[in-house]
Amino acid sequence: MGFDPSCELPTDMQSILDFNTKKPNSIATRLCCTLGPQSRSVEVLEQLLRVGMHIARLDFSWGTPEYHQQTLDNLRVAMRNTGEMCAIMVDTTGPESRVRNPQPGILNFVAGEVVTVTTDAHAIPSAN
């Protein structure tokens, strides 16, 4: 199953499916890819650009500014290497509640227990 590139298509359909076309405005669909740990190397970004990535999305709800800067630097190198341009979308979601547990292991919660939630990054998680 899947797309068979050898099948006969009307000329106008083929131009839509041909990602290598350089005709302006020939592709109506834009491909947006969220970049993360598995998709931020120069090599992977080059592959994504070659197969049609038009927009690179950065999710600022996690990661450090340095992490995202390195991803952007890698994207710039990949664009230079491939000659393909790519827009950048930054997802700057508002405050979110996240459970942070830098200690190894799992925190177990029992119904009826009191749970303290803090924004103190130095607080040590405990199930006691």
From TrEMBL:
Family: Belongs to the pyruvate kinase family.
Domain of life per record: Eukaryota
Cofactor requirement: K(+)
Entry keywords, A to Z: ATP-binding, Glycolysis, Kinase, Magnesium, Metal-binding, Nucleotide-binding, Pyruvate, Transferase
Name of protein: pyruvate kinase
PANTHER family, sorted: PYRUVATE KINASE
Domain Pyruvate kinase barrel: 29-123
Pfam hit, one: PK
GO MF, one annotated term: kinase activity
Pathway(s) the chain acts in: Carbohydrate degradation; glycolysis; pyruvate from D-glyceraldehyde 3-phosphate: step 5/5
Keyword Metal-binding (UniProt): yes
UniProt source species: Tetraselmis chuii
Statement: the UniProt record of this protein carries the keyword Transferase: yes
Gene3D superfamilies: Phosphoenolpyruvate-binding domains (3.20.20.60), PK beta-barrel domain-like (2.40.33.10)
EC number: 2.7.1.40
